[in-house]
Specification:
InterPro entries: Bact_solute-bd_prot1, SBP. This protein is 38% helix and 15% strand. It has helices at 5-18, 67-76, 92-101, 140-147, 150-155, 178-189, 196-204, 209-219, 243-253, 282-291, 310-315, 327-335, 379-391, 394-402, 417-422, 426-429, 443-458, 464-482, and strands at residues 41-42, 52-58, 80-86, 108-112, 123-124, 157-158, 161-162, 165-166, 170-171, 173-177, 221-223, 226-232, 272-273, 279-280, 319-324, 341-345, 363-366, 368-373, 434-435. The strands form five sheets. Strands 1, 2, 3, 4, 5, 8 and 18 form a seven-stranded mixed sheet that branches. A five-stranded mixed sheet has the order 11-12-15-10-16. β2 (52-58), α2 and β3 form a beta-alpha-beta unit. The two termini are 35 Å apart.
Length: 483
């Protein structure tokens, strides 16, 4: 992950500052996907006055993570110097857009993938053949589709133009507390005839959502109405990190069309037709399945509003499983080096109407891209550096330094769900099957609509269909007002 000393200090500060707020996450910030320093830092490069100086702004890493990249690039490009600045993530968008509006700011701007639509007018696409070179003349779009995982071509390429270069692709995965699983194994072994299938499932971890439901029944412990040991943090939004992403993953696994192809209408609340012509409601089914884990009337009930944030509850041994991104693993290790946990692939939904057919895996991704700003007077030099990042191993050096997952295609992918669950590093292969959905140009507002939609249904303020309908209406209004 490459979190430096400053980030470790920040993590401790966040923990102390948020202990009084049980819904605050371990990495509670405006963008919760990466923990970073609050105090801006700069690389220590002091360029000669005759060099072209590229200023790079980014909010997610220490400059040391780029030391090898900077050295290698400047060895072959002595006329270009890199001024790498780490900005506070909490105000990154405001500071960046204010600077760009004032005709200032960076030459290279590192931003989340979800910002691309909103800030497309502030960045310039890659010059054609910049990645392959004039000799080979491979169109940029073809180069990207051959090198990077599919989600990059679907999101970082706009109108046939490459908007930016990905640094990594992070995906949702299932974290489980091995100490709790071992305790449950001991409990089962105390029976006269231990259930071998349950023991195998606890040893391997859940490969699909049916497995998760099975584990809920044997892990959850209650004292009358109180849950004393939760199996998994699902079913709410206020105290579950990335609840909107988890729900989105479930809907996409269940083959829900979340918005219309023209990005004008939210459709996740509507029935869809199967290939047989039969009507069904995949969005509603996924929504109600998600909610069932925090519904006292359902067999899946294992979570409620009394729990602290899912990340904290996992750290404190109150919940056996959570769904979160790769970055969290390093954060947990910093808080408690003795925490015995394992990360496995995101569970999958079996095909509708056929519980025997292996589903095609659907994973959920987030990532950052390096873009070149329209304000820059050094756009050719900037794209020269980004070309180096892609073609000469810059991204691989970065991912080696940070421990993040490479955005490149790989050949070795698990053949089935059992192999997925048994893999020691799901973040290596999950980017190959990762997807997302278009949340409008106002991602923060779209996420809030979904969080409120979950809360409306989870608290009983609305039934599930009314909550979905209101969420779809608000998202449709947002889409049409920003496109």
């Amino acid at each position: 992950m490459g979190i430096g000393l400053g980030a470790i200090v920040l993590i401790v500060v966040i923990f102390l500052a948020t202990r009084g707020n049980k819904n605050a996450s371990l990495t509670d910030s405006e963008n919760k996907n990466i923990a970073t320093t609050t105090k801006p830092k700069k690389s220590k490069t002091t360029p000669a006055p005759d060099k072209t100086v590229l200023t790079i702004w980014q909010p997610i890493d220490e400059p040391d993570n780029f030391a090898e990249i900077i050295a290698e690039f400047q060895n072959t490009n002595p006329d270009i110097a890199l001024n790498w600045e780490v900005k506070s993530i909490n105000e990154y968008e405001r500071v960046s857009t204010n600077a760009l509006s004032a005709q200032k700011g960076p030459d290279i701007w590192v931003i989340p993938n979800t910002w691309i639509p909103r800030h497309q007018d502030k960045i310039v696409p890659a010059p054609e053949y910049v990645f392959s070179g004039e000799k080979d003349k491979i169109p940029n779009v073809d180069y990207f589709s051959s090198q990077f995982v599919p989600i990059i071509s679907s999101e970082a390429v706009i109108d046939g133009k490459v908007a930016g270069v990905p640094l990594f692709v992070d995906t949702l995965a299932l974290y489980y507390n091995r100490s709790i699983f071992k305790d449950v194994i001991k409990e089962i072994n105390q029976n006269d005839e231990p259930d071998e299938q349950l023991l195998d499932l606890l040893s391997s971890g859940p490969a699909n959502w049916n497995d998760v439901m099975t584990l809920v029944k044997i892990i959850t412990q209650k004292d009358n109405e109180n849950i004393t040991r939760s199996a998994i943090a699902l079913g709410a939004s206020e105290n579950i990190s990335h609840s909107e992403d988890i729900l989105g993953a479930l809907m996409l696994q269940n083959k829900t069309q979340i918005i219309s192809p023209d990005h004008q209408t939210a459709t996740f609340n509507l029935p869809q037709d199967k290939n047989t012509g039969e009507s069904y409601s995949p969005g509603k089914n996924a929504f109600e399945f998600f909610l069932s884990f925090a519904d006292k009337t359902k067999d899946n009930y294992t979570w409620n509003s009394s729990f602290e944030n899912s990340q904290k509850a996992f750290l404190n041994g109150k919940v056996a499983m959570i769904i979160d991104y790769q970055y969290l693993g390093k954060v947990l290790e910093k808080y408690d080096p003795n925490l015995d946990f394992k990360t496995i692939a995101l569970p999958q939904v079996y095909a509708i109407g056929d519980a025997t057919q292996e589903p095609t895996p659907v994973d959920f991704a987030t990532y950052y891209v390096m873009t070149v700003t329209k304000n820059s007077q050094k756009q050719d030099a900037a794209w020269k550096f980004l070309s180096y990042m892609v073609s000469r191993g810059g991204i691989r050096s970065y991912d080696a330094a940070t421990g993040r997952s490479k955005p490149f295609k790989i050949d070795e992918i698990p053949a089935n769900l059992t192999e997925r669950a048994s893999s020691s590093n799901p973040f290596k292969f999950q980017p190959m099957t990762a997807v997302g959905w278009y949340r409008s140009k106002e991602t923060v507002k779209a996420n809030l609509i979904w969080k409120n939609m979950i809360t409306n249904a989870a608290t009983g303020a609305m039934d599930s269909q009314k909550a979905l309908d209101l969420g779809a209406k608000l998202l449709t209004d947002l889409l049409r007002s920003t496109e």
